Amino acid sequence: MLKITTWNVNSVRTREAHVASFLEREQPDFLLLQEIKCEAHQFPGMAFSALGYEAEIVGQKSYNGVAILHKGGVEVTHRRLPGMGEADAHSRFVEVKAAGMRIGGLYLPNGNSGGEAGYQYKLHWMAALREHATALMAADEDFILAGDYNVCPTDADFAPRALPANDALIRPETRAAFHALLHTGLTEAVRALHPKDTLYTFWDYQGGAWDRNIGLRIDHALLSPRLAERLQHVIIHKDERGKTQPSDHVPVSVILES
Which SS3 state, helix, strand or coil, does residue 7 take? Predict the structure, then answer.
């Protein structure tokens, strides 16, 4: 079995102990982190290397930032989403080649800040991700694109009244862009195995969202066709949200047949 986990940790230095405990307990083959909120030299890699994990880091001071923790050697194929160009200063994408596949970790823009320009940046990023997926499909690659997508694909993916109708996570253009990504031939792992269950991966710190179970499902793993055939289980590690000083997101693990 191969376990690939994605987790928006909302500051890896704040959540270092939680991440280390998760690695020791769950032993994922790959852990994709988002919102690490630090530059590479500040990343607490020694704590994770003691557990047998190396890190590929695309950091940024105070904001954004992604990383992939892994147990074996990998080839880094991208440190920026193809198509976004060097003018994009946000650290939101890292991709490696390992275990016979491409593994992409992403932190998609929220789209609620920066006015209309901020929302257009979100849509531009999603279009570039779709183009990248299309290129990988054309090259007959096996791949997974996992992370914080900042998208609730349907109304079933957020609690009633958790979001206003004009929120960027559920605007019609956002959902259309997400479904266009799926239409490249990708399978959304959680819904493939749990098509109708009420499942969330994020609970805001405000308004008693965790205690009242007012959540969102915005952390997704999309699989190329051959990987979708190998899909065995998905796990939403909900208990992480109930810990002291948790991230507002919880890990999501995809289990693939070897």
Answer: strand
DSSP 197-219: ----SEE-SSTTTTTTT-EE--E
- pLDDT of residue 102 exceeding 90: yes
List, in sequence order, every residue forming a beta bridge with 221; answer none if it has no partner.
146
CB 91 within 8 A of CB 64: yes
> 181-196, pLDDT tens digit by residue?
999 999 999 999 999 9
Question: All domains of the chain, ordered by start, with CATH?
Answer: 2-256 (3.60.10.10)
Helix pair angle (115-138, 172-182), 10° resolution: 10
Residue whose token pair is 């275990």: 99
Band of pLDDT at residue 174, cut at 50, 70 and 90: very high
For strand 93-98 and strand 101-107, is the pairing parallel, antiparallel, or unpaired? antiparallel
The two tokens of residue 31 are: 């852990």
Pair 141, 99: CB distance under 8 Å: no
Q: Nearest to residue 13, comparing CAs of 51, 31, 39?
A: 39
